[in-house]
Write a structure and sequence with these properties.
- The protein is of the alpha+beta class and about 700 residues long.
- It contains 8 helices and 28 strands.
- Strands 19, 20, 21, 22, 23, 24, 25, 26 and 27 form a 9-stranded mixed β-sheet that branches. Strands 2, 4, 5, 7, 9 and 10 form a 6-stranded mixed β-sheet that branches.
- Helix 3 runs antiparallel to helix 4.
- The longest helix has about 45 residues.
- The chain is flat and about 125 Å long.
C-alpha cells in the first residue's frame, strides 16, 4: 500500500515547480520596477544638479533664445544705423565717437568694455584677440570712457571712446574692435574653477593716409594625386595653398583653381569660395579637391587669385596673382596591369618556344634516323631559316617602333619656325623698381587656332633665346582688357635676374608673348614690349634715348643711365565725417608732406587727411618688396614658368616640358629595345643568316 500511495503522489512535484516559476517571475518584475524607479530618481537628481552648472558656463539667454546683451555704434544720445566704425585719418589725428551697450534681459548686467586687435581666423572669419592677449596695433589706439558699466534691465548705456592715431602709424588699413564682455564662473568636471567670458563687439576700421600697397600673394602651393584601382579610370587631386595679404590694404579675392596635363585639358576645381576680407599681414590656407584627373605622369596645378575691394573701398585694380606647381600623377594601376600582361606574354612565349624546340628535335631525330647526314645539315639550315623568318620580322619591327618613338620624343626639342609679330605689349606700371610687380597687356588677342601662350624675357644677362617667365598656359585663364590679354607676372625682374645668375639690370629688356597650341612647335604670332632700366633698381617703359634696336643678350659695353623723371604729386585733402564704410580719396603718387594737420572733433569725425594713394599707371602698384625678392615669394623655381630648356621656339621650351624627363624616357626605350633583341637572340627566338656576318 505504501508503494501505491507513493505512485499516486508522483504528480505533486510538477505543481510545486509551477508555483516556483511564478514566484521567480514576480521577483524579477519587482526587481525591474525597483531598478527603473531608482534610475528615474537618479536622472532627476542629475538634471537638477547639472542645471546651475550649465547656466553658469553657457551664454546667458532669455526665454526667446536671444543673447541678453549687445553693442551698436551710437551718437551721443542714441544708437545710429551704422554697422561698424570706419575712419580715414592722418597720423596724429584723433576721433571721438560713442558705443551703445544694450541689455535685452530682465535683470541688470555688469559688463566690461575694452578694445582689441582684429585678425582673420583659420576659415577666413573676422575675430578679436581674447582679453588675456595684449594688442599691438589699432586695439591700443582706442581708449574707452568707462572700462566697466552696469546696464539696467531692457536698457542701454552710451559709452564714449577716443581713437588716437599715433604719429608713427604706418599707412594703410588697421582693424580692431570694441568689446562688451560678461564674465561668469563655474566648476568643471574635476572641481576646478572655470572662468567663462561671453562677449560681443563692433568692428573698427581705420585707413591711415600714406602710400597704399594693395597686394595678395599665393604661397606654399602643393598638389597631391590620388589614384584609382581602375587602370583606365581617372583619379583626384588635392590642391593646398596659402593666400597672404602682403600689402597694407584689406582685400577680398575671387579664387580659381585648375589642374591640367597632357591628356586632360584644364579641369576647374568646383566649390572654391571667395575670400570676403583678408586683413593686412594675415593669411588664409585653402584646400580644394578636383576630380576627373587622368594620370598622365606629370600634371600641373594653377591657382589664380583676383583681388577685389572690400565693401565701399576703392577697387585696387590689381592684376591677378598666379601660381603654378607640377606634381606626379602616376597611373600605378595601369602600370601594374601592363606588368602582369608582360609577364603573361613572357611565360606564353617561353612555353611556346619550348614546345617548338621539342617538336623540332623530334623531327630532327626522325630525319637523322631515316636519311643521310647531308640532308640532316640541310634540315638544320631550313630550321634556322624558318626561325629567322618567323622571329626576325616581328622583333625588327618592335625594335624599329621603339627607336622611332624615342626619336620622336627627342625631336620634340627641335627648334621650330618663328611667327611674325602680331602686335605690341604694354608693360605696367610705366615706372617702377626691380622688385615691382609687372603686368603685360597685349594689343590684341591671339589669332585662331592658337589657344595657348608663353612669355619670354630677353636682354643683357639672359640667355640668347630668352628666359621663360610664363610657361605654356591656356589663354582663357587671362582676362581680356579693352584690346587683348592682361598677363600678370608672378615674379619680379630681380627674381628673374637671380634665376638667370646675374645681378646688374641695365639697358633694354624685351618681353615676347607667343601665341601657340598646347602641343607642337607651330606659333601664330608674337606680341612684343620693352622696358628700360636706367639704373640697377629703376625702370621705365619708354626709351630714354629714343628708338633703338632689339636688345642683345651678349654683354654690351656700359651704357649711360638716366634718372627717371619724377611724377607729379598730389596733396591729400581733408577727411570727411566718418561713415559706415571707409571713404578714401582717389590714389595718386604719394608726397612727402601729408599737407594737413591732425586734430580732434566730436561726434565721430576725424581731423585727418584721406590716404595719398600708391598706385601708378594702369592701376597697379609696386607689388614686390625687398623681402619678397630675397625669399622668392613672388615666384617658384619648381614650376613650368621657370623652364629654360630647348631652343628658340622649340616644343620643349614652348610647352614648359622638362627635357631631362624626355631624355630619360628615350634612353629607357632604346635600352628596352636592345634588351629585347639580345634576349631573343640568346634564346634562339631571333637569328640572322650566317650568324650576322656579311
Amino acid at each position: 500500500m505504501t508503494s501505491s500511495l507513493q505512485a499516486r503522489s508522483l504528480p505533486a512535484p510538477p505543481a510545486r515547480s509551477g508555483q516556483a516559476r511564478s514566484a521567480q517571475v514576480r521577483s524579477v518584475q519587482a526587481r525591474f520596477l525597483v531598478t527603473a524607479l531608482l534610475a528615474g530618481v537618479l536622472a532627476c537628481l542629475l538634471v537638477l544638479t547639472a542645471g546651475p552648472a550649465a547656466h553658469a558656463s553657457g551664454p546667458v539667454r532669455d526665454k526667446g533664445g536671444r543673447t541678453t546683451f549687445g553693442v551698436q555704434p551710437s551718437g551721443p544720445k542714441k544708437p545710429d544705423r551704422r554697422s561698424g566704425y570706419s575712419y580715414s585719418a592722418t597720423p596724429g589725428a584723433a576721433v571721438r565717437d560713442h558705443l551703445a551697450v544694450l541689455n535685452y534681459g530682465t535683470r541688470p548686467l555688469k559688463l566690461k568694455v575694452y578694445a582689441s586687435d582684429a585678425f582673420n581666423t583659420a576659415d577666413g572669419g573676422f575675430d578679436l584677440l581674447a582679453a588675456g592677449r595684449p594688442s599691438t596695433d589699432a586695439g591700443t589706439w582706442v581708449k574707452v570712457g568707462k572700462g566697466s558699466v552696469v546696464v539696467p534691465a531692457r536698457g542701454r548705456v552710451i559709452v564714449p571712446f577716443t581713437l588716437t592715431v599715433p604719429r608713427g602709424a604706418g599707412p594703410g588699413d588697421h582693424a580692431a574692435g570694441i568689446v562688451a564682455a560678461l564674465s561668469s564662473g563655474g566648476s568643471g568636471a574635476d572641481g576646478d574653477r572655470v572662468a567663462v567670458e561671453q562677449r560681443v563687439g563692433a568692428r573698427v576700421h581705420i585707413r591711415v593716409a600714406g602710400e597704399l600697397k594693395p597686394q595678395l600673394t599665393v604661397e606654399k602651393l602643393n598638389a597631391t594625386y590620388h589614384g584609382t584601382a581602375n587602370p583606365f579610370g581617372s583619379g583626384s587631386a588635392t590642391v593646398t595653398y596659402t593666400v597672404r595679404n602682403t600689402g597694407n590694404v584689406r582685400l577680398g579675392a575671387r579664387q580659381t583653381v585648375r589642374v591640367r596635363n597632357a591628356v586632360t585639358g584644364p579641369v576647374r576645381v568646383p566649390g572654391v569660395h571667395d575670400i570676403k576680407e583678408l586683413l593686412p599681414g594675415n593669411a588664409l590656407t585653402v584646400t580644394a579637391t578636383v576630380r576627373g584627373v587622368f594620370p598622365a605622369m606629370r600634371s600641373t596645378a594653377t591657382v589664380t587669385v583676383d583681388p577685389v575691394a572690400v565693401g565701399a573701398d576703392i577697387d585696387p585694380a590689381l592684376p591677378s596673382a598666379n601660381r603654378s606647381a607640377g606634381f606626379w600623377s602616376v597611373p600605378w594601376a595601369l602600370l601594374a596591369l601592363l606588368l602582369v600582361l608582360a609577364v603573361c606574354a613572357a611565360v606564353w612565349l617561353t612555353l611556346r618556344r619550348r614546345r617548338r624546340t621539342r617538336t623540332a628535335r623530334s623531327a630532327a631525330s626522325e630525319s637523322h634516323a631515316s636519311t643521310p647526314s647531308v640532308p640532316t645539315s640541310v634540315s638544320r639550315k631550313e630550321k634556322t631559316s624558318m626561325l629567322t623568318k618567323r622571329f626576325f620580322g616581328p622583333a625588327a619591327a618592335a625594335t624599329a617602333s621603339l627607336l622611332a618613338a624615342a626619336g620622336g620624343l627627342l625631336l620634340l626639342g627641335a627648334p621650330g619656325a618663328q611667327a611674325a609679330d602680331a602686335g605690341t605689349l604694354t608693360v605696367t606700371p610705366a615706372t617702377g623698381s626691380d622688385v615691382s610687380g609687372l603686368n603685360l597687356t597685349a594689343s590684341a588677342t591671339c589669332p585662331e587656332p592658337a589657344d595657348y601662350l608663353i612669355v619670354k624675357v630677353s636682354g643683357k644677362g639672359f640667355p640668347a633665346e630668352g628666359q621663360n617667365v610664363v610657361g605654356n598656359s591656356e589663354v582663357s585663364i587671362y582676362p581680356v582688357g579693352t584690346a587683348g590679354y592682361e598677363v600678370p607676372l608672378t615674379s619680379t625682374m630681380r627674381d628673374y635676374a637671380n634665376i638667370a645668375g646675374f645681378q646688374t639690370l641695365e639697358g633694354r629688356y624685351e618681353f615676347t608673348l607667343t601665341c601657340r597650341r598646347a602641343f607642337g612647335d607651330a606659333t601664330y604670332g608674337d606680341f612684343k614690349g620693352s622696358i628700360w632700366f636706367t639704373s640697377n633698381t629703376a625702370y621705365q617703359n619708354t626709351d630714354p634715348d629714343g628708338p633703338s634696336s632689339s636688345p642683345s643678350s651678349t654683354p654690351p659695353g656700359p651704357s649711360e643711365s638716366t634718372d627717371p623723371s619724377p611724377s607729379d604729386s598730389v596733396t591729400p585733402g581733408d577727411t570727411a565725417e566718418p561713415s559706415d564704410t571707409a571713404e578714401p580719396s582717389d590714389t595718386t603718387e604719394p608726397t612727402d608732406d601729408p599737407g594737413t594737420d591732425a586734430g580732434t572733433t566730436d561726434g565721430g569725425t576725424t581731423d585727418g587727411g584721406t590716404t595719398d594713394g600708391g598706385t601708378t599707371d594702369g592701376g597697379s602698384t609696386d607689388a614686390g618688396t625687398d623681402a619678397g625678392a630675397d625669399s622668392g615669394s613672388g615666384g617658384s623655381t619648381d614650376v613650368s614658368t621657370e623652364v629654360t630648356s630647348g631652343g628658340t621656339g622649340g616644343a620643349l621650351a614652348s610647352t614648359g616640358a622638362q627635357a631631362g624627363i624626355f631624355g630619360v624616357a628615350a634612353a629607357a626605350l632604346i635600352a628596352l629595345g636592345t634588351f629585347a633583341v639580345v634576349w631573343a637572340r640568346r634564346r634562339g627566338l631571333l637569328t640572322f643568316p650566317n650568324g650576322g656576318r656579311r
